[in-house]
Amino acid sequence: MSGIAQKLASNQKQVAISEFFEKNKHFLGFDSLARSLITAVKEAVDNALDACEEARILPTIKIQITKLDTKKDIVRMVVEDNGPGIPQKSIEKVFGQLLFGSRFHAIRQSRGQQGIGITGVVMYCQLTTGRTTHVRSKIANEPTAAFVDIGLDTRKNKATKANAGREIWYNEDGTGKEHGTEVTAEMKAKYQKGRQSVWQYLRMTSIVNPHAEIIFVDPEGERHHWTRVTERLPTKVESIKPHPHGIELGQLQRMIAESKDLNLNHFLLNNFSGVTNRARKELCQAAEIEGTRKMKSVKGDDIRALLESFQGERLFNGLPVKLLKPPTNCLSPIEEMLIKKGLSKTIDSRFVTTLTRVPSVTQGNPFQVEVGLIFGGGMAGDKPVEILRFANRVPLMYQQGGCLLTKAIESVDWRQYGLDQPGGKGVPKGPAAILVHLASTNVQFTSEAKEALADNAEVMEEARKAMLEMGRGLRKHLEKKKKMAKTKEKFELINDILPAIAEKSAQILERPIPELSGSITRIMSAVISESTTEWNKETKQTDVEIILFNYTSRVRAYTILATWPEKAGATMEKNETGGRKEALGVWAWKLESLQPGEKTTITYSLGGLERGDWTETEILFRGSQDVIGATKMDEKFLQEIRRQEQILGESGVVEPEAETDQKQAETVEKTDEPSEEKIEPAVAPPDGQRTLFGGDV
Amino acid sequence: MSGIAQKLASNQKQVAISEFFEKNKHFLGFDSLARSLITAVKEAVDNALDACEEARILPTIKIQITKLDTKKDIVRMVVEDNGPGIPQKSIEKVFGQLLFGSRFHAIRQSRGQQGIGITGVVMYCQLTTGRTTHVRSKIANEPTAAFVDIGLDTRKNKATKANAGREIWYNEDGTGKEHGTEVTAEMKAKYQKGRQSVWQYLRMTSIVNPHAEIIFVDPEGERHHWTRVTERLPTKVESIKPHPHGIELGQLQRMIAESKDLNLNHFLLNNFSGVTNRARKELCQAAEIEGTRKMKSVKGDDIRALLESFQGERLFNGLPVKLLKPPTNCLSPIEEMLIKKGLSKTIDSRFVTTLTRVPSVTQGNPFQVEVGLIFGGGMAGDKPVEILRFANRVPLMYQQGGCLLTKAIESVDWRQYGLDQPGGKGVPKGPAAILVHLASTNVQFTSEAKEALADNAEVMEEARKAMLEMGRGLRKHLEKKKKMAKTKEKFELINDILPAIAEKSAQILERPIPELSGSITRIMSAVISESTTEWNKETKQTDVEIILFNYTSRVRAYTILATWPEKAGATMEKNETGGRKEALGVWAWKLESLQPGEKTTITYSLGGLERGDWTETEILFRGSQDVIGATKMDEKFLQEIRRQEQILGESGVVEPEAETDQKQAETVEKTDEPSEEKIEPAVAPPDGQRTLFGGDV
User: Fold this and answer.
1) Which of A7, A10, A13, A54 to mutate to test the interface with B (most CBs of B within 10 A)?
2) pLDDT of residue B644
3) Are residue B37 and residue B156 in the same domain, yes or no?
4) Where are the beta strands (DSSP E) in B53-179?
5) What pLDDT, on the 0 to 100 scale, is given for residue A584?
6) For position A349, which CATH number holds?
7) Size of interface A-B (CB pairs under 8 A)
8) Same structural domain for residues A466 and A601?
9) What is the rounded average pLDDT for all residues in chain B?
């Protein structure tokens, strides 16, 4: 026995982070030859998009894959962007050092977070082919581009450099390149087609990055081009300070130990989001610490008390201290209309609905869920629906089953929304695709490969709510289609057959043909609305026409309401019927007296849009008798829109009720696995999210 | 634009590995409060088991969980082992430094590999409670134990130490503790019961570590005790050298650069497993490099050529160079009988079958798959079967859906083996539990939390083959049960009713009762075998009785064969019928003339076993007429047993055919996702794995 402990201990040594990831390269997404190529492209393209957005440049990215040795599966990848470029002395660290980057400590939405991705690619190339990665980069205020071959000393986690120099960088057309970065990497990998492929990754990227132009030259030399569908860059995201609700004790201890603030008052005001001057005072009182205490003297139990005040475990005047929610300008959702554009561009379908939830918060981190649903068209009806998962605008291509977003989809009983789903659980079947996007300052993946989201009760709930709301939109669409088809059938029957019978009968009886319009009205006994939304090539506007037929025997009065993309910057033109704005994106017209057998027409045009932006208008009504082809106004719907308007108006900073806040914090702590019971029932009433952009396309 | 590149670059900095894992603590298994506690227990227990095995100590591990603050979810975990202990100066590194350990570079089967686990626990405690972890450790040749409070400086990845000292460590009974380690950690966590709980983790651990004694005191003070069911420690594993088939170019370059060998000949012989002197010569020739070349001169294209020879891309005499398989003494499977014991101890059932495949190799790493199936008993019949996944004797509790082992189970059509399975895909339903264990020198998990295995075509194939074979065992068992029940029914009918009819008829006709034995034989027209296998309390042996009835009208001749646990060290006793050894674990008796209407009995006893070790004997026969209750000998079965004997006899080092080897290497490179097509059809013939330990329990 003696000596065995020492013997065992003597074998222990420190492993470098690079050695760790070299051995565990599958953690980074390098597990099979096909996936390794996708991972490499993904890391390079993610970096390019992040850099362009930070520098406010509309990205143009070119990806070229060449097979160098088919027998040995050696592939070359070249990714070129028009980003700001990387200063010469930074190149080696960005490409040759793991865990080096700018985004790790920044609290804001970005694709890259960890400083692992592209260095992982360099490491994989070196390991599998022994070759270095060639990087060329030019920044705007230098005349030439820097180039260098980068490798990785895995024992030291340092870059190795070779063949460094400078050169003039010419574009294909012979002009000089202004700025950008080009990565040339040669690796053991395999190019393949299909559901999990470079092509599919780029196609999905283009859906959620409609502002990017992506050109892909595949190994056969074929050129695939996804054009830019909007010139609008995503909203610029700002880094925010951590929110007290997301702080853990160890972190707070470190912040205090490293603080250079004058005293606790300054510390609280300078280092957190959501802490107003009032909140600062109340936090100090709840924690029973003087705000004027020097930071050096804030220790042990003080820190614990402070954290308990943060978390509402210590009270001020018998209540948890009210904190503002973190600002949400750290997020940049894609937004409904752009998702719709992206989807329509890549998937042929009959019906598209999209939905962006208002931002929410989990553990102090703002996040936002967006969903889209495409139905009909050429999609197969007997297969599971296609699931398109995204996090911070990056497509997730692997580990679908283990991803929170998939679980959110599976948790919904889709049968009530018109999709097949054996047992009411699991991925539904039908001619549909479901898109779900999480934008967050801290996306929690299950591993470094960033392919699946880890469980989180709040994100699950938001995603599920979005699905339910979208499901209702689909059901409404299908029901409306059905109802309209029935009414149309009845209408045609009455309008065609009744006069024919009347004519025949009159002939036989040798009497005059009777006047039928009154009878038709009585038989129909309905008010019908019909609407068209059409792109007008000449005026470059979207023309909308709403017709209301009164096929009843009484005078009718209605308020007709229509949705329109006001939030997206559309303008209401040639609206001769007048009316008024009812809420953001909802216009209303009062129709006082609609005579029996008569029809009324409302027409207007929408300016400021592009073709395909707006293809169906939702018609709603207020009034006592149902209108076929329109939806009765749910006043809660309007209330919710107004609440959202308020939130957006205040640029994301809303004083929440303390109770709500507190409840959220508790959910974070008490819920360990996303629990079925906590989630709202599938038959819950609409919780007011708008599905403004539903429509046939 | 100017300056943006510099501005972006100026924000970049290096992140410490500890900071990385602090932010991404969910990668390490700290994602929910309940799971965090399981993860902490798991890391401590894994370390304890590894240390005990390395020091050849039968482990006794005590785990105590106490709730310190129910409102704030603060929990204390104490894990004490009787391992070799850790020298005082090593404690801080083991517990306070990430990626520090002895097992990262060693190629052998061990639970811990990465040097992350227990330091992750220390980090999590510090982050969530601000508290240090108390460690006490005593090694055998020191009079006192060392103790210290360990924390983690995440910015530097260094331990912080406090309150270090030495003390006498007393056991509960007042005696002095000889050696061992005790970890006391306080963390934000939640104790819960159920399928994913500390209790379940320990229960599963005891199944695959039958040599360990585990005592668990839960927060209510209840004491759970899993006793040691074998005094035999797992086979000692030896570290092996890397195998040429598992080497990648970057790694070979580094090995050559760091080599201190005299020349290439020495390098090849000293640093690899599987390279004989013949292979060494042939590799040099195939690579066209002189074996006497100094290592410094082996560069660039030489290294590439060498790797191509390793991988069979460069040929010697037109063929790939033959290499030995890596030795398999780096693996320590649990072995069939111990799995069965473990399962029987914890799950009540009617039928247990287990199977250990012979070791195989993927990418130069030896691995071995073991499976077990439990059927019947008190288990629910309408639910998915329970899946018990293990890797290197560690239970896997999370991410079941994303795990290779689950996928292997799902890929089998279980309907043909008597289990329900809607659509012939997915986890089967029925009153059963399936155990699957992967032992490997390099278990590839999907993340640091080590809860699911990443895809690998060879492991998938081995696991699937094991499932198929086990499924056949289950089917055989169910069919045999059915057939025996039918025969028994017929037998009872004939034996009870025929005489009754005869008697009644005789009475009515007033004639003597006829002799019926001849008629019964003619009606039955079958040879029936019955066997019992019973533990004899007095002799401490397992008594086996085999009876053969000849209910046919002709003389019969058979060879009867029976399985017995020879490999596990059993001895054949009191076998008066004699016979001979047919193969390892198979005994045979020749029965020359079995008269019509007669029966023959074979009895013997098995020594060297414990109660419960052997509860059912499989009876086989050679002969022309079927024997109900026995299985016709499949000669391939014997051939396979003999092949395995040979493999085992050569202690794992077998010269494979070059073609087979080559084919394996190709599969590694060409297969990116485990492909359905590559796997043998579900109705494949038995590939000869023995299911020796099937039986009712």
Assistant:
1) A13
2) 67
3) yes
4) 60-69, 74-80, 100-101, 133-138, 145-153, 158-167
5) 84
6) 3.30.230.10
7) 237
8) no
9) 84
pLDDT at site A461: 93
User: Is A505 among the domain residues?
Assistant: no
Q: Does A4 contact chain B (CB < 8 Å)?
A: yes
Q: Which amino acid makes up residue B304?
A: R
Going from the C-alpha of B97 to that of each of B101, B154, B164, the distances in angstroms are 9, 9, 17
In this prediction, what percent of chain B has a pLDDT beyond 90? 41
Question: A174: domain range?
Answer: 17-226
Q: Please, which pLDDT band fits residue B677 given cuts at 50, 70 and 90?
A: very low
Q: CA dihedral in degrees (B297, B301, B307, B313; nearest 10)? A: -140
Tokens representing residue A492 in the block = 């045609």
Q: Please give the Cα distance from B36 to A184 (Å, whole number).
A: 42
Of A127, A250, A670, which has the smallest distance from its Cβ to B126's Cβ? A250
> Same domain for B76 and B219?
yes
DSSP B11-50: T-EE--HHHHHHHTGGGGT-SSHHHHHHHHHHHHHHHHHH
Does residue B486 form part of some domain? no
Low-confidence ranges of chain A (pLDDT < 70): 1-2, 345-350, 377, 644-697
Mean pLDDT score, B158-184: 93
Confidence (pLDDT) at A648: 56
Domain count, chain B: 4
Within a domain: residue B541?
yes
Residue A4 is encoded by which pair of tokens?
């065995």
What digits encode the pLDDT tens for the residues B361-376?
A: 888 889 999 999 888 7
A461 and A567 share one domain: no
Length of chain A counted residue by residue: 697
pLDDT at B649: 55
In this complex, the residue of A2, A32, A249 whose CB is nearest that of residue B127 is A249
Is the Cβ–Cβ distance between B23 and A250 less than 8 Å?
no
pTM for the model: 0.77
Q: Quick one: pLDDT at residue A655?
A: 36
Best of A447, A668, A678 to mutate (most B CBs within 10 Å, chain B): A447
The beta-carbon neighbor of A9 closest among B8, B86, B114 is B86
Kindly state whether residue B482 falls inside one of the protein's structural domains: no
Shared-domain flag, residues A433 and A578: no
Tokens representing B90 are 């090593």
- Lowest-pLDDT range of A246-260, B61-75, B107-121, B213-227: B107-121
The pLDDT assigned to B350 comes to 67
Looking at B183, B199, B226, which one is the last position of a domain? B226
Residues ≥6 apart with Cβ < 8 Å to A115: A97, A98, A99, A100, A101, A103, A104, B12, B15
User: Last residue of a domain, which of B199, B226, B253?
Assistant: B226
Check CB contact of B233 with chain A, cutoff 8 Å: no
The single residue listed with the structure tokens 């934000």 is B188
SS3 of A506, please? helix
Distance from CA of B360 to the nearest CA of A (A): 20
Nearest to B456 by CA among B309, B643, B202, B673: B673
* Tens-digit pLDDT profile for residues B304-319: 999 999 988 899 999 9
- Judged by a CB distance cut-off of 8 A, whether residue A20 touches chain B is yes
What would the DSSP string read from start to end of B552-605? SSS-EEEEEEEE--TTTT-EEES-TT--EEEETTEEEEEEEEE-TT-EEEEEEE
- The pLDDT, as a whole number, for residue B652 is 38
One domain for residues B97 and B171: yes
- How far A643 CA sits from the closest chain B CA (Å)? 33
Q: A351 and A296 in one domain?
A: no
Asked if A412 contacts A463 with a C-beta cutoff of 8 angstroms, the reply is: no
**ipTM score for this prediction:** 0.75
Q: What is the CATH number of the domain that holds B534?
A: 2.60.40.1170
User: Taking 90 as the threshold, does the pLDDT of residue B98 lie above it?
Assistant: no
The answer on B548 and B419 residing in a single domain is: no
CATH of the domain at B274: 1.10.8.50
